[in-house]
Amino acid sequence: MNNLTGIAGYEVISQRCKSDLDELEAVLEREPERCPYCAAPGPRSKGRYLRKVRHRSGYVRSTFLLVHTRRFWCWRCKRSFLPTLPGIRPYRQSSELFRKEVHQRHEDGICASTLAKRERIGQATVERIYHQHTELEVRKRSNRDCPRMLGIDEHTLGKKNRFCTTFCDLGNNRVFEVRPGRSEKELSGFLASLPGREKVEVVCIDLSQSYRKLVRRWFPNARIVADRFHAVRALAHHFTGLCREIAPEITRNSGLLAILRTRPGRLSQKQIRRRQELFDKHPTLEPLYLKRWQIHSLLCQKSCTAKKCRSNAKELYRHIEELQQQGFAQLKTLAKTLQQWIEPIATMWRFTKNNAITEGFHRKMKLIQRRAFGFRNFENYRLRVLAQCQ
Fold first, then answer.
1. NCBIfam families attached here (predicted)?
2. What is the pLDDT of residues 328-363, one digit of tens each?
3. Is residue 87 part of a domain?
4. Cβ neighbours, 10 Å, residue 238
5. How far apart are alpha carbons 387 and 97 in whole angstroms?
């Protein structure tokens, strides 16, 4: 009988089973011996008190907990009080065990309206319980210093394409913070009050000038690491645009475009023959194709020593000079981008961390937005992201 409640501190005295619900009557195992206000011993009884709360959820039958206790009066401070009930917070109509079950079921994907009908409570009650538990999870992680390795990237929120900035803890693989906006003006207030930002050693960003200025100002001791995915994507973007200018039929033939985008070692014999036919028709493409994959293999190197990084930087400078000598605007733009980001790219060869973790969390954030059918209140969105993306 004592284990029916699932909460320590109660003694079950009876159980009643009705048509669609169960009722557990219980009393406290120990009544208060001192006043909680003045600690005076021997408080006096002021009368019986019955507390009825929703206790456990069920698909068919529900359980209510009826706690028989007494209101007490202190003879010293002349104040009355109720004893603290384990697992039941003041002014709440349900136990913490029931609220935890509702939160978990809503977290597992059951919508608020369905859960409210099943548990015979209001939909607003479900949302309130979920919000309170989410705040509790976030509060456990509050007042923490900035992580040593930080990933910064942007994503959109809602149909109006409101931009938000994600600060990801790359060392512990979790979202550190989410803030509205992406400019330094919008983020300066948060960054100014961020504790421990001088301890940040590595910051991984995409090829964004605004984020680089932000990192240099607010994280003075951090080394900027270029995200490998964005560096390779910039290379592929400019090369694809140039191929479409030289051979317009590529735009209408997705198979040829897929061949040019695929690594040479992964092509089949049929694809190699089609690629050679394209090169015979447009001889200018072949040297550009080889140059693209030389730079690609250079950018994809990881965990290099300091000596190897210096050698790679010299090789990348040579490729940049060759791209600048070409008469194509796409290649000159690519050369300018690589030259501006040569130092973060060299740091990228040294470290293995990148923003792949951040991009993965962005995918999870999109799922959170779809489950909620969008968010109008940014704080509600932030709480859900910090509670689930860890």
1. transpos_ISL3
2. 999 999 999 999 999 999 999 988 888 999 999 999
3. yes
4. 22
5. 19
